[in-house]
Amino acid sequence: MQISGLGTPGIPPLAATPAPAKAGLDSFGDLLSEAVTKVNDIQWQADTAMMQLAAGEPIDLHQAMIAMDEASLAFDLAVQVRNRLVEAYQEVMRMQV
Amino acid sequence: MGLTSSLGISGSGLTAQRLRMEVIANNLANINTTRTEQGGPYQRQDVVFTPTTTSPFRFWLASAGVESQQPLGVQVSAIEEDESTPPRMVYDPQHPDHNEEGYVAYPNINIVTEMIDMMLARRAYEANATVIEAMKSMALKALEMGRS
Description:
By secondary structure, chain A is mainly α. Chain A contains two helices and no strands. The longest helix of chain A has about 35 residues.
């Protein structure tokens, strides 16, 4: 919540400028969508590794397996985060007014 | 991104051991090669490992801007020819590659040494794979903590 300072009366307010990208101060929704994009990227990289392996390109088998392991762990983590969020939301909704 | 870099360390170890295995296979395949492009017999090749400070898994580490100087695995810096032992000379005037005294120069590859190197490379590969399993189970344990 932003509390703007008192402007000097008589001076017109500044024209609305687009807010610059502030790392770390994005909204929680942006943070979540960024995390989901990262998990998606990791999954996509694992998929690419498997396709390269199937096509016979010079990729090591263990690199493909490691990519798949990381994708699965990242996805598990994302699912856990989702569970926590849903729990927190339900907790909040249970509060009596 | 601790998990990515730690899996990357073992991944680099696996890649290095696999390359070492390929060099050993090449040595064994060329154990009787008497004629190469350089003229002499095939020289035994050996890998040189050096620690690396950047992870081979660069695709998603670059976004984090990790510029650490700590060692992050191993890389094969060179595949060098082993000049320490002379070629094995066998007297065979019938062979097309014999020199003026009738001796043929065979590569300086000892099959027993190569077999032992092969076993060592295999054990090192298994050790790295075990490390990856251990790290994976640690990560899954950590995820279980969140499960109430």
